[in-house]
Design a protein that fits this description.
Order of helices and strands: HHHHHHHHHHHHHHH
Largest sheet: none
Shape: rod-shaped
Helix content: 25-40%
Structural class: mainly alpha
């Protein structure tokens, strides 16, 4: 047993009474159990403190008052807790069984809080999920991260809590846009969202960072139908009459059948032109006259056929499906050149059958 400063000052018979030295106990309590029982600040026995004195008292201490009990090993004393007297938490010097979870001491604070009403809102009783032990008060420095439940950006960031959480009701507040904005969806007329068949997923067109419903809509029309050329200059109502959006055709002829039918230069229907307008017209054209027809049936871009008017071959402009080769190719010439050809006939279909590329 080391004789530390205090023990070294004692007479031997203080510990070795009746001159008994054999097998003395080396644990503190064997000599200091009476000190343990008589201590009232705090009451060690009532507090349930262990009887191994060395957990708080050092042999080198000059007195028991120099205890080095580490409260942080049980409960960290920080923030407001560091400023409190022991009796605030340990009433009547009761230490044993003192709760270490916040709600164990602060249930009353939880129950009586009205801004917002924690119990009605369904807030967890784990105070530390929103409040930090370093906070100077319950209302200062709340650590609740609203973004973990619903990001507060744009207009949402400027609203008072009661705008979304009426009557201090927090539990069950929807996190999808339409859950709060169904009325906005239903009453919108420009365009009428319900009649147009727009999805109720507001975020598919509107961004949470927008300052209003009408500003910065994120709807990408190009994902449905590219707005280029003349289409880019038109008001929505030109294509979507009476605010009808659902079912609007995306193929050209779906909107331009009348243009196809009434065209006479040339007559598209009589000529058998395809109704796929984009086979000749580009969506970037500023007018129908800018069509780029490709004469894929017979080469007319070079040789004597180039620069000839359509009427040279298509004498019946009522139908471009009908053509003639005989206007330019006289019979005397063609008969002379085909004397050795079996099955030769002097008619346009026969000419085209043998000369689809215009060559001899």
């Amino acid at each position: 047993m080391p004789l530390n400063p205090v023990h070294n000052l004692l007479a031997c018979d203080t510990c070795h009474r009746d001159a008994r030295f054999e097998a003395p106990s080396l644990d503190c309590a064997s000599c200091h159990m009476e000190d343990y029982r008589e201590t009232r600040e705090p009451n060690h026995a009532a507090a349930g403190f262990p009887t191994n004195c060395e957990t708080c008292h050092r042999p080198s201490d000059a007195s028991f008052e120099q205890a080095v009990f580490d409260h942080n090993a049980y409960f960290p004393l920080i923030g407001v807790h560091a400023t409190q007297a022991c009796a605030v938490c340990h009433e009547n010097s009761v230490y044993q069984g003192t709760p270490t979870d916040c709600v164990g001491c602060h249930r009353d604070d939880y129950d009586r809080t009205q801004a917002p009403n924690h119990a009605a809102a369904g807030f967890p009783a784990a105070c530390e999920s929103c409040h930090r032990p370093t906070d100077a008060s319950w209302s200062s420095g709340t650590g609740f991260d609203h973004n973990s439940a619903f990001p507060l950006v744009g207009v949402h960031a400027t609203q008072a809590c009661a705008v979304c959480h009426q009557n201090n009701v927090f539990r069950g507040t929807p996190t999808d846009c339409v859950g709060c904005h169904r009325d906005d969806y239903d009453r919108t007329q420009a365009p009428n969202h319900a009649a147009a068949g727009f999805p109720t997923a507001c975020e598919s067109c509107h961004r949470p960072t927008d300052a209003s419903w009408s500003s910065g809509t994120g709807f990408d029309h190009n994902s449905v139908f590219p707005l280029v050329g003349v289409h880019a200059t038109q008001a929505c109502a030109v294509c979507h009459q009476n605010n009808v959006f659902r079912g609007t055709p995306t193929d050209c002829v779906g909107c331009h059948r009348d243009d196809y039918d009434r065209t006479r230069d040339p007559n598209h229907a009589a000529s058998g032109f395809p109704t796929a307008c984009d086979s000749c017209h580009r969506n970037t054209d500023t007018s129908w006259d800018q069509g780029r027809f490709v004469h894929s049936w017979f080469p007319i871009t070079s040789g004597p056929h180039a620069n000839r008017p359509c009427s040279a071959c298509h004498t019946n402009t009522a139908s471009y499906a009908v053509f003639t080769c005989l206007t330019c190719h006289e019979r005397s010439e063609t008969d002379r050149e085909h004397r050795e050809e079996n099955g030769y006939r002097y008619d346009s279909p026969a000419c085209y059958a043998c000369h689809p590329n215009g060559k001899h």
